[in-house]
Specification:
It catalyses: Hydrolysis of terminal, non-reducing beta-D-glucosyl residues with release of beta-D-glucose. The chain is of the alpha/beta class. The chain contains 24 helices and 37 strands. Strands 1, 3, 4, 6, 9 and 12 form a 6-stranded antiparallel β-sheet that branches.
Length: 1007
């Protein structure tokens, strides 16, 4: 049973009412107390779906012991609930109501109380109640605590308004964040850790009468009401009650327009008065207050008119609603003007505080209140991995982001927010979105047109939920498979990464930015600048990470050729934003040693913005400036002066903005630098059309997860499959064959989609919509029997398919040595051994990086690198059953052992299991003629190179590659692997003749 409490997270209950006092607290007209638990045996020790009391804890020793004990001093009845505990982590007990019956309605009562046998140990004890949701284990948790600082029985009396919503743990992520009290599922008690103890409890009951101010509330339909000058704002005021009961007593709302930046009588007609909702008024009743604005002839920024509400008999709105007269007549609002003129005009009007706000990005869940968007002039919000609305639907995303954009309308210049997400392989935070293969699989396709299509689908689905900014693509050149982010890379060769940057056009449209305002395009982000794929193993200083966020130590030449080259391509393609890396860069010979990238002005200001001519803006990584040396002011000063334009400070946005303002006033950051940063940010906001259309255009929402979008993902999954070995032509399968399917990743959508899917780290299991490889094989018409662990009888089958590999991870959490390995799990190894020992077999490795398979390679007839294919397992089945051919090629070198790492194309010592670029095909027959054919292909390649015919050049090199692969088989040697890998690099750089020459050398080296 899922745990329902961890640690106390609420403030100490201020008063404990003893029995004598409790008796006087009840009014004459209060309802009789309602028992919840008498502990006389009426509620069993049981768990859901039945009603019952059960224990839980961090480990086997932490759940307390419980028993019903006869006590002569029992406050009520004959028995009490008693127990002992010795908790090292967390532990406690729960009373859940029956899941199969309706929830209980507690709304008529003031609170809950119970008797506690005090031990005077001075420890806090958490008490929580369960509100809403499907059942007691899928409800919202509301918590408070009391202190055991007394001896003997005492009645603990807790009004419902003393409970606070738990932010540290919610089993369903929260439902409506409102303690409704009409659908209650029970309570839980968390006992104190670190001390041996005993307890006794008796007579849990509901007490008192809920006064109307606890049950009734007054709300407005919005917090902000933008209106054009001369227009009328209509503020709807609604009264509602818990349980939707009619009002017992009248509710009055006195209103008055006062304060704000608009002038009473000149900008608007003042209003005041009182609204009355009489006793008996139906819950949900609404009245409207109208505020008329006045026209004048002057151009003006936005002006605010607070509508102050004084409520009697109910809870008042959480904040004062504001009518906002829209900014008008100012040049920056004129969409006919060039963007540079609009930017210059707006910038000239902004205060330092407003500029600092534009440079600040907060996490949407990190906002203290939504009003902070206007109060701090925030320029941007983001959703981190797994930070989603409830429910996680396209409509909920659009509504959430629109509500944030509405808040920005209450600022002086109504500068819209730019909202960002990590849509790194489709709109992967959204349930039901089309999830593409991760970048390593896209690199395996060697198909730039397809890469562009995947970007276009992603952009379309992201923008349709109101989001204009994507923190993708990752342009790292992954040089060590032990890195937990290696699957985010297109490959180990900068030439391959550059060739896949067509994805930028899929995301953004044309390089000049003219398509950014379309409802199916987003601003893209090239990350992580620069060298994050080259960090040395063991160099990370972040927690238990091994390589992620470590140090990249390179010569200046290596830096330029390997790591910087893809960013120049991105700039040439018009990339709108760039994100620096967490990692440090150590350029051999420059005398600086390792320096965090967020502090490297020479690289951000000097190379990226200066030499490369990048005109977008630089966004920091998540809390990355906190890793810089020195105090916080130094973090801010150093990163901004290094060229970071916007800071991703998810929960410290107030501190960052205040500190930045202070640094400018102190002269340590120049106003010129601030103006440069803000100009860059505003330029992209204007290009995106956010000033004209700040709210979500959901016209494309129907295409999210559509058949057309999934067809692109299916094609990408199919083209990403790399056939490494195919002895005896085991693949493709025939539908007439009886196929035995096994392995941990055959029927697990979560493992198939990997990290960055709905949550940051991803998770095994089914958490979004898609098709597993097993399901796809059945859909394809195959005669399939499935046994995950290969425990079912193995006789009578024509061929086995064993789908093995990794479980999800992301970033440094997934580093090899940080709880992860390149070895298959024991269960996967056993499944391979069983199936491949009994029949012809094909092994599919579903993973974000190569897995060490050499010790079993001789027993495996066919081997496929399936990477992380995304939600469309049909694409994998397409190549397994021959509907599509295998055409994928290795985007990274497949090592023989971990001792070889790092190993990459171009290394002086290069003896892998399979070389970079390797990939058998079932599309084209291998040309005959051997060496003579290679000679002819060499001449044809030279001609293609002279004429600039890329398609002819690729086709010629592919034929030569197939000749080498056929002759080499699986008996690859270093003499073959080196030139073979070099040839694929040369092909990507357009050197077709040199590529054929390398392949000819590899052909001759085959024994």
């Amino acid at each position: 049973m899922r745990r329902t409490a961890l640690i106390a997270s609420a403030a100490l209950l201020t008063g404990l009412i003893p029995l004598s006092a409790a008796g006087t607290a009840s009014g004459a007209d209060d309802p009789a107390p309602v028992p919840v638990d008498r502990f006389e045996g009426e509620v069993p020790f049981a768990s859901q779906p039945a009603e019952g009391i059960f224990t839980w804890g961090a480990d086997a020793d932490d759940p307390p012991t419980l028993q019903l004990t006869d006590r002569t001093d029992a406050p009520e009845g004959a028995k009490v609930l008693s127990g002992t505990y010795d908790i090292s982590g967390y532990g406690g007990f729960t009373h859940d109501f029956a899941a199969g019956r309706p929830a209980h309605d507690w709304s008529a009562h003031q609170g809950i109380r119970f008797w506690w046998d005090g031990q005077d140990n001075g420890k806090k004890i958490a008490f929580e109640i369960k509100d809403g949701g499907a059942n007691g284990e899928a409800s919202e948790l509301w918590t408070t605590s009391f202190t055991d600082d007394f001896t003997g029985w005492k009645q603990i009396q807790i009004p419902f308004d003393a409970f606070t919503y738990r932010t540290d743990y919610q089993p369903v992520g929260g439902i409506d964040h409102v303690l409704g009290l009409t659908e209650m599922w029970g309570y839980a008690v968390t006992l104190p850790p670190g001390v041996k103890g005993r307890f006794a409890m008796d007579d849990v009951e509901l007490y008192g009468k809920a006064d109307q101010s606890r049950r009734a509330s007054v709300t407005t339909d919005s917090a902000v009401y933008p209106v054009r000058e001369g227009g009328t704002a209509r503020v709807k005021v609604t009264v509602a009650t818990t349980g939707s009961a009619p009002l017992d007593e009248p509710v009055t709302v006195a209103y008055d327009t006062a304060g704000g930046t608009a002038g009473s009588g000149t900008d608007y007609t003042p209003v005041s008065g009182t609204l009355t909702f009489p006793a008996g008024t139906v819950s949900g009743s609404t009245r409207t207050i109208e505020v008329r604005t006045l026209k004048d002839k002057s151009a003006e920024p936005a002006e605010t008119i607070p509508l102050k509400l004084a409520v009697t008999g109910a809870k008042a709105p959480a904040e004062t609603p504001q009518v906002v007269i829209d900014a008008h007549g100012l040049p920056y609002l004129d969409s006919r003007l060039p963007v540079r003129k609009r930017v210059a005009d707006l910038l000239s009007r902004m205060s330092l505080e407003e500029k600092a706000g534009q440079m600040t990005q907060a996490e949407r869940a990190g906002l203290t209140s939504q009003g902070d968007i206007a109060s701090y002039d925030l320029g941007s919000l983001l959703s981190g991995g797994g930070s989603t609305p409830t429910p996680n639907t396209p409509a909920a995303w659009a509504q959430m982001i629109d509500s944030f954009q509405l808040r920005a309308q209450a600022t002086r210049f109504q500068i819209p927010l730019i909202y960002g997400v990590d849509a790194v392989h489709g709109h992967n935070n959204l349930a039901g979105a089309t999830v593409m293969p991760h970048n390593i699989g896209i690199g395996a396709t060697r198909d730039p047109r397809l890469a562009e299509k995947t970007g276009a689908v992603t952009a379309s689905e992201v923008r349709a939920t109101g989001i204009p900014w994507d923190f993708a693509p990752c342009l790292c050149v992954s040089r060590d498979e032990r890195w937990g982010r290696s699957y985010e890379s297109f490959g180990e060769d900068p030439a391959l990464v550059k060739s896949m940057e067509t994805i930028i056009q899929g995301l953004q449209g044309r390089a000049d930015g003219r398509d950014l305002s379309r409802n199916d395009k987003v601003l893209a982000t090239a990350k992580h600048f620069v060298g994050d794929g080259g960090t040395e193993y063991g160099s990370s200083t972040t927690g238990s990470y091994k390589i992620d966020q470590g140090v990249t130590k390179v010569t200046r030449q290596e830096l330029e050729a390997v790591h910087l080259a893809p960013f120049q391509t991105a700039v040439d393609r018009g990339i709108g934003s760039v994100m620096p890396s967490y990692s440090s860069l150590d350029i051999i010979g420059d005398g600086q040693g390792p320096v965090k990238m967020h502090a490297r002005a020479d690289m951000i200001n000097g190379v990226l913005k200066g030499r490369m001519g990048f005109d977008g803006f630089v966004i920091s990584d998540w809390n990355a400036i906190d890793q810089l040396p020195g105090d916080y002011a130094s973090h801010v000063r150093t990163s901004v002066n290094a060229g970071v334009d916007m800071m991703m400070v998810p929960y410290t946005y107030k501190d960052f903005r205040t500190t930045l303002i202070d640094e400018v006033k102190a002269g340590r950051v120049t106003e010129k630098r601030i103006d440069d940063a803000v100009s860059r940010i505003l330029t992209q906001k204007f290009r995106l059309g956010l000033f004209e259309h700040p709210y979500a255009d959901t016209s494309g929402a129907a295409d999210i997860g559509s058949a057309a979008h999934r067809a692109v993902a299916r094609q990408a999954a199919a083209e990403s499959q790399v056939l490494l070995k195919n002895a005896g032509g085991v693949l493709p399968l025939k539908k007439s064959q009886k196929v035995y399917v096994a392995g941990s990743n055959a029927d697990d959508l979560g493992n198939q989609t990997g990290g960055w899917t709905l949550t940051w780290q991803g998770a095994s299991g089914t958490h979004t919509q898609g098709t597993t490889i097993l399901q796809a094989m059945r859909k394809a018409g195959g005669d399939v029997t499935y046994s995950k662990d290969a425990s079912a009888p193995l006789s009578g089958y024509d061929v086995g398919v064993v789908v093995v590999g990794e479980t999800p991870y992301a970033e440094g959490v997934g580093d090899v040595g940080n709880g992860h390995s390149l070895q298959l799990s024991a269960a996967d190894q056993a499944a391979v051994d069983k199936v491949c020992g009994a029949m012809k077999c094909a092994v599919l490795i579903v993973s974000g990086r190569p897995q060490l398979i050499g010790d079993r390679l001789g027993k495996i007839d066919a081997l496929v690198a399936s990477w992380l294919p995304g939600t469309e397992g049909d694409g994998v089945a397409d190549v397994l059953y021959g509907r599509r051919p295998f055409t994928g090629q290795l985007p990274v070198t497949w090592p023989k052992s971990e001792a070889q790492l790092p190993i990459n194309v171009g290394d002086a010592s290069y003896d892998p299991q399979f070389p970079y670029g390797w990939g058998l095909t079932t599309l084209t027959k291998v040309p005959a003629g051997g060496a003579a054919t290679l000679k002819a292909l060499s001449m044809a390649a030279a001609a293609a190179e002279r004429s600039g015919s890329a398609s002819a050049g690729r086709e010629i090199v592919t034929k030569a590659r197939l000749l080498v692969q056929q002759k080499a088989g699986s008996a690859l040697t270093a003499a073959v692997a080196g030139p073979f890998a070099d040839a694929d690099h040369l092909l990507l750089t357009g050197k077709y003749a040199a590529a054929v020459a390398e392949l000819t050398e590899a052909y001759r080296a085959v024994a």
